[in-house]
Write a structure and sequence with these properties.
The structure is a single chain. Helix content is 68%, strand content 3%. Helix 2 packs antiparallel against helix 3 (35-76) and helix 2 crosses helix 4. It starts with a helix and ends in a 15-residue tail after the last helix. A hairpin with a 5-residue loop joins strand 1 and strand 2 (91-92). It has 149 residues and is mainly alpha-helical. It contains 5 helices and 2 strands. The protein has one domain (18-27, 34-138). The protein has a two-stranded antiparallel sheet with strand order 1-2.
Length: 149
């Protein structure tokens, strides 16, 4: 019984992949929330992720992983099927959009799916370490239960 309570408490302290995606995007947004600032945040986010993933997976592996995240996110938001992934792993197709809320929802969906894929392949701990090394000052470091290992 005590093990079940401990497991339940840990689940409450662990951020969901969507919450991790929101933390990342919020950090990149800085102070602005207008469409232009959001589009810049999308570019910075995927450029940073692309740099880390390319070192570990090569450019083709990075692009493939991001394309898969877009395809999975498009299951929930079908309009994401029009988003392209560049050779460097950045997203193309958000630039022509006019609704900040739609862009934000799409980016969070793609980031969440990308985090899920990374967790599947390398595990939660290594995924969080990679995200923390990319965004050391983001909220990820201060989440409940963080041991800073």
């Amino acid at each position: 019984m005590a093990e079940g309570l401990k497991s339940s408490r840990m689940a409450q302290e662990t951020l969901s992949t969507r919450e991790l995606a929101l933390c990342i995007l919020s950090f990149e947004l800085e102070d602005g929330k207008d469409l232009q600032t959001l589009q810049g945040a999308v570019e910075r986010t995927f450029a940073k992720l692309g740099a880390h993933l390319t070192v570990r997976l090569g450019s083709a592996g990075c692009r493939t992983l991001v394309k898969r995240a877009v395809a999975l996110a498009a299951n929930d938001l079908p309009w994401l099927a029009s988003i392209e992934v560049s050779e460097s792993g950045t997203l193309e197709g958000f630039q022509g959009m006019t609704e900040a809320g739609e862009v934000s929802d799409g980016v969070v969906a793609i980031l969440a799916r990308l985090v899920e894929l990374l967790e599947t392949f390398i595990g939660r701990t290594l995924t969080e370490r990679m995200l923390h090394s990319t965004w050391p000052n983001a909220v990820l470091a201060g989440r409940p239960g963080d041991t800073n290992e």
